[in-house]
């Protein structure tokens, strides 16, 4: 029996949802079987000889059921359990695979611009959760300002500075002085949703309210903003509690 794990972008009525799927090939299997295990882990059991294209099509056909079942099955999340279910982070507009392992030294991360892998090394035992939280926040501080700058340059919107914080109930904010404050959990959102939040805050550089003019500006930059906003709330709103005691 052989296994491998791949990340898929599932198309649902509420938008695109990234899901990690463990492929397990078995001599005993007679048909493809998709299972959501305890904790929200997804496994696809395959008979020998099944084409990858057929397996991918099967996963996509089950997308609505799969995402709904994952949300119902997953327990209250710790940082480690979340990263086990979703072993990726969003950096520079890309979904990057996340490789986590223990280290005997201080926790550290490795990421190089243009690559699609982020490496986390954390201490075990009682330090485990605290180190992973530290590394996620460090990654957010190091990468989110660059994404704001990229998007602001693209739409020709000036801003002051970027602050990465641990907001209690919001993804971001923008002050009258032009400071864009972002929730560190944005690195755990799919890239399209991370960009939606940033564009939302940059739109406040033109309209410091949520008037019709504001939403018209958001729509000009992100025509799918309504779907993105719905997906953000429905599929990823639970991230707000991640990392809190």
* Strand residue percentage: 25-35%
Low-confidence stretches: none
Outline, from the CA principal axes? globular
- State the helix count: 7
Span between termini = 40 Å
Question: Which percent range fits the helix content?
Answer: 25-40%
Order of helices and strands: EEEEHHHEEEEHEEEHHH
Radius of gyration: 19 Å
Largest sheet properties: 4 strands, mixed
Number of domains: 2
Q: pLDDT average, as an integer?
A: 89
Strand order of the largest sheet: 1-2-4-3
The assigned CATH architecture of the largest domain is 2-Layer Sandwich
Count of beta strands: 11
At the first level of CATH, the class of the largest domain is Alpha Beta
Structural class: alpha/beta
Query: Quick one: CATH superfamily of the largest domain?
Result: Metalloproteases ("zincins"), catalytic domain
Per the CATH scheme, the topology name of the largest domain is Zincin-like
Structural description of this entry:
- The longest helix is centred in the middle third of the chain and has 28 residues, at 128-155.
- The protein has helices spanning 52-61, 63-73, 79-85, 128-155, 191-203, 212-221, 225-236; strands at residues 2-12, 15-26, 33-36, 42-47, 88-91, 94-102, 108-110, 117-122, 162-165, 172-174, 180-183.
- The chain folds into two domains: 2-73, no CATH class; 79-241, 2-Layer Sandwich (Zincin-like), CATH 3.30.2010.10.
- The strands form three sheets. It has a four-stranded mixed sheet with strand order 1-2-4-3. Strands 5-6-8-7 form a four-stranded mixed sheet, covered by helices on one side. A three-stranded mixed sheet has the order 9-11-10, covered by helices on one side.
- The model has no long low-confidence stretch (mean pLDDT 89).
- β7 and β8 (117-122) form a beta hairpin.
- Helix content is 37%, strand content 27%.
- It is an alpha/beta fold.
- The chain starts with a strand and ends in a 9-residue tail after the last helix.
- It contains seven helices and eleven strands.
């Amino acid at each position: 029996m052989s296994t491998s794990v791949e990340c898929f972008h599932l198309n649902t009525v509420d938008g695109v949802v990234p899901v990690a799927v463990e492929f397990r090939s078995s001599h005993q299997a007679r048909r493809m079987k998709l299972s959501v295990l305890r904790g929200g882990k997804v496994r696809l059991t395959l008979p020998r000889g099944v084409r990858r294209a057929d397996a991918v099509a099967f996963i996509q056909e089950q997308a609505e059921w799969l995402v709904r079942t994952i949300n119902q099955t997953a327990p209250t999340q710790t940082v480690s359990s979340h990263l086990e279910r979703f072993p990726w982070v969003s950096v520079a507009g890309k979904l990057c695979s996340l490789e986590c392992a223990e280290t005997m030294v201080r926790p550290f991360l490795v990421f190089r611009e243009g690559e699609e892998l982020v490496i986390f090394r954390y201490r075990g035992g009682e330090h485990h959760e605290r180190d992973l939280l530290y590394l996620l926040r460090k990654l957010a501080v190091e990468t989110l300002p660059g994404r704001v700058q990229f998007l602001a340059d693209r739409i020709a919107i000036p801003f002051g500075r970027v602050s990465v914080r641990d907001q209690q109930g919001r993804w971001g904010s923008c002050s009258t002085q032009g400071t864009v404050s972002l929730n560190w959990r944005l690195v755990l959102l799919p890239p399209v949703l991370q960009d939606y939040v940033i564009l939302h805050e940059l739109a406040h550089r033109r309209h410091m309210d949520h008037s019709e003019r504001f939403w018209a500006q958001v729509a000009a930059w992100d025509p799918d903003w309504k779907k993105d906003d719905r997906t953000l709330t429905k599929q990823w709103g639970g991230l707000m509690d991640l990392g809190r005691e």
